[in-house]
Amino acid sequence: MNVNINELAHYYATINISIIDVARTVVPPGGRCFGRHTPPFSGIVFPLRGRARMFFNDVPYEMEYGKIFHAGPNMSLDKEVQGRSEWVFMVIHYQTDDNAADSFPYALAHFELEAGYNTRINDLLHRLYNSCTTPGKLPGLRAKSLFFSIMDEILTSAVNRRNEGGQEIVEQAMEYIHSHYMESLSVPMLAGQYALNSKQFAYLFQKHTGMGPNEYLIEYRVRRAKELLCTTACSIAEISACVGYSDPYYFSKLFKKRTGFCPSMLPKLSNRKNRLI
């Protein structure tokens, strides 16, 4: 399930939640369990050590530290430990009001969030575990406060991870443009290489470079054309084709619009500048 983190944060901030329990489980190497179901309330799974594969309603998830998983109530559940190490995880079980189900669909869904290596989440999680196993009303109040601190930390980390991933995608796209600017490129084609739609890709590109992908491509092509005009004896038509424009007339108009002068003038201007120097 594709999770909108802003929506998820809004839901947790506005609905009423009751914490059922916090459990810590150690499963030995080779451990497996099939044909079970999740409890009749929602759960958030925190892998701490080792690896496992879990299936919520037959959808597989690779469980490992740095990832956090949510499962809804009464889902089919299969799990098996991967590798030769024991698998250690903690799970927070919580429940929402019955009338919140329609306004909080995430509580009934399974999904994954990447928080990365965040020791603060672990610290808060163990403090929550201790509060939930301590009798009295004050620990109960502290447990709810710790729960929301954990969710805040998870969602903040997930946003940061996604932003970092977006920057990496944009850097890769820029390198691709630098290597293939002479070819026919389009935003849908570039976006498809990173499993994004055109709108998502354009948003990330604008966010990390300050300009859209089409604008960046044009600027790079014009810059390469200027270099070729000043350093080679190629014709306008040849340079136009070299930088990805099959129509030299269109290229000339675009070049003049971007630089203020016709491409045929650039070698003369460059020679005049060199003589003055």
UniProtKB/TrEMBL annotation:
Signal peptide region = none
Record-linked Pfam families = HTH_18
InterPro entries membership: Homeodomain-like_sf, HTH-like, HTH_AraC
Q: Which UniProt keywords apply?
A: DNA-binding, Transcription, Transcription regulation
- Using the record's annotation, list all stretches that form the HTH araC/xylS-type domain: 171-269
Taxonomically, which superkingdom?
Bacteria
Which Gene3D superfamilies does the UniProt record give? Homeodomain-like
**What is the protein's given name?**
AraC family transcriptional regulator
